[in-house]
Design a protein that fits this description.
By secondary structure, this protein is mainly α. It contains 17 helices and no strands. The chain starts with a helix and ends in an 11-residue tail after the last helix.
Length: 413
C-alpha cells in the first residue's frame, strides 16, 4: 500500500536536522522601572500634604494673630512715619504711639469699670424694691396674689438655680483659662505689630531683596495702597463710632439716663471696633443702667439699638465705606459676610481693608478700555424722539456721502 502525501511530509520533517527556534521565549511580565519611583514619590507627596495640613491647623491661631498684627501695623504706619520723618527713631516713635493707645484704652476701661461697679452695687441694694414693683404689676395685670417671700423661696429652691451655681463653680477654671489665653493672644498681637511697625523699612528691604527691580516697585506700591486703605477703613470706623455715639447720647439724655456721655462713648467704640457681637455688647450696658431708672427705659434702649443697627448695616456703613475705602457698598457688605464665614470676627474686622487693597492693586495694573455709548451700559434710555432724530441725521449723512460730486466747470476763454 503506497504511503499518503501527509505521511511522506511527516517523514521528511523528521529526517531534517533540528534548527533553533527564532521566536522569543515566553516568560512572566516584568514591572516597569519607573513604577516603584512613582509610588515612592506619590507616598512622599501625600505624607508632606498630611504634615502640612496638620501644621496649618496647629498654627492657625498664630497665623490669625500675625494677620491682625500686620493690619494694626499698617494702621499706625502714618503716625510712625511722620514722627520718624522729623528725626525720631522708628522704635521710639512706635513705642510712643502704642503707649498712647494703651493709656487711652486702659483709662477708658477703668472709667467704665468704676461706673459699672457703682451701678451694680446700687442695683443690688435696690433689687428688693424692683422685685416688689414687678410683683405688684403682675398681681394687678393677671389678678394674682404673689408675694416677694414666696418668689424668693421658689427661686432659691429651684433646681435650675442650683444647677447653675454648680456649673458656675466648676467653670471658674475654664473662665480663668480663657481670660489668660485672651491676654496672651493680645500680647502676641501687640508684639508682632510693634515689630512690623518699628522694622517696617527693614521688612520692605528684605522683601525687595529677593525680587527684580520691576517687581520691587510693585511691592512698594502695594504696601502704600494697603496703608492708605487701612487708614481709610479706620477713618470710616471712627466716623461711624462718632455718629453712633451722638445718636445714643441724644436718646439717653431724652430718657434721663445717667452717665450719658460715657455710655455714648462706650456704645460708639465697642459697636464699631468689636465685630459681630460688638453691637449687642455695647447695648447691654446702657440697657442695664436704664433699667435701674425705669424698666420701660431699658425696652426703649433695646428697640433703638436694634433699629439703629439695621440702619447702620444697610445704609450708613456701605455708603461711608464706599467713600472712604473706595469700594462698592455691595462689595463691602459681601466682603464682611465672606470674612465672617472664613475667619469669624477677625475676618469681619479685616475683610474690608483687605478687599480694598486687593481691588486698588488690581485696578492699577488691569488695562481698561473706553466703553461704547450704549444705553445698556450707560444706565439711561434715550427717548423715542431723540432716537428718531438721530436715525434721520444718520440717514441724511449717508445720502450726502452717496451723492456724486458736482462736475467741475470749464474756465471761460
Amino acid at each position: 500500500m503506497a504511503p499518503t502525501d501527509e505521511t511522506a511530509q511527516d517523514q521528511a520533517k523528521a529526517a531534517e536536522p533540528d534548527r533553533p527556534s527564532t521566536a522569543p521565549p515566553v516568560g512572566p511580565a516584568r514591572m516597569p522601572r519607573w513604577l516603584p519611583r512613582a509610588m515612592v514619590l506619590g507616598l512622599a507627596l501625600y505624607a508632606c500634604y498630611q504634615l502640612g495640613d496638620w501644621a496649618f491647623h496647629q498654627l492657625i491661631g498664630l497665623l490669625l494673630n500675625i494677620v491682625i498684627a500686620f493690619f494694626l501695623a499698617l494702621a499706625v504706619e502714618p503716625a510712625v512715619g511722620r514722627m520718624a520723618a522729623r528725626g525720631m527713631r522708628r522704635g521710639l516713635a512706635t513705642f510712643l504711639v502704642f503707649f498712647g493707645v494703651m493709656v487711652v484704652g486702659v483709662g477708658f476701661v477703668v472709667m467704665l469699670g468704676s461706673m459699672l461697679a457703682g451701678q451694680i452695687v446700687e442695683m443690688v441694694g435696690e433689687f428688693p424694691k424692683y422685685l416688689d414693683s414687678v410683683i405688684s404689676w403682675v398681681n394687678q395685670i393677671f389678678r394674682t396674689s404673689l408675694s416677694r417671700v414666696e418668689v424668693q423661696d421658689s427661686l432659691l429652691r429651684s433646681d435650675w438655680l442650683q444647677k447653675y451655681v454648680q456649673n458656675s463653680a466648676s467653670g471658674v477654671l475654664d473662665v480663668s483659662t480663657t481670660v489668660l489665653g485672651g491676654l496672651f493672644k493680645l500680647l502676641t498681637i501687640f508684639l508682632f505689630s510693634f515689630y512690623f511697625a518699628a522694622d517696617g523699612p527693614r521688612l520692605r528691604r528684605a522683601l525687595c531683596s529677593v525680587l527684580p527691580p520691576a517687581r520691587q516697585m510693585e511691592v512698594l506700591r502695594a504696601w502704600e495702597i494697603a496703608v492708605d486703605k487701612t487708614g481709610g477703613y479706620l477713618y470710616s470706623r471712627g466716623l461711624m463710632a462718632l455718629i453712633s455715639g451722638v445718636a445714643h447720647y441724644i436718646l439717653l439724655v431724652a430718657l434721663g439716663v445717667p452717665y450719658a456721655p460715657a455710655l455714648a462713648v462706650w456704645v460708639g467704640l465697642i459697636s464699631q471696633f468689636i465685630p459681630t457681637i460688638g453691637t449687642y455688647l455695647a447695648g447691654a450696658l446702657p440697657m442695664l443702667i436704664a433699667f435701674k431708672e425705669n424698666p420701660w427705659y431699658a425696652l426703649w434702649v433695646l428697640c433703638f439699638v436694634v433699629v439703629y443697627q439695621q440702619f447702620e448695616n444697610y445704609l450708613l456703613q456701605p455708603k461711608l465705606t464706599a467713600k472712604t475705602v473706595d469700594i462698592h457698598p455691595a462689595v463691602a457688605f459681601g466682603s464682611v459676610v465672606a470674612g465672617t464665614a472664613l475667619m469669624g470676627a477677625v475676618g469681619a474686622l479685616i475683610a474690608i481693608p483687605a478687599v480694598a487693597t486687593l481691588q486698588a492693586f488690581l485696578g492699577a495694573y488691569v488695562k481698561r478700555y473706553d466703553v461704547t455709548d450704549d444705553p445698556r451700559v450707560q444706565g439711561h434710555h434715550r427717548s423715542r424722539r431723540a432716537s428718531a432724530l438721530a436715525r434721520m441725521r444718520a440717514a441724511l449723512n449717508r445720502s450726502r456721502d452717496a451723492q456724486p460730486p458736482p462736475p467741475a466747470r470749464e474756465d471761460a476763454d
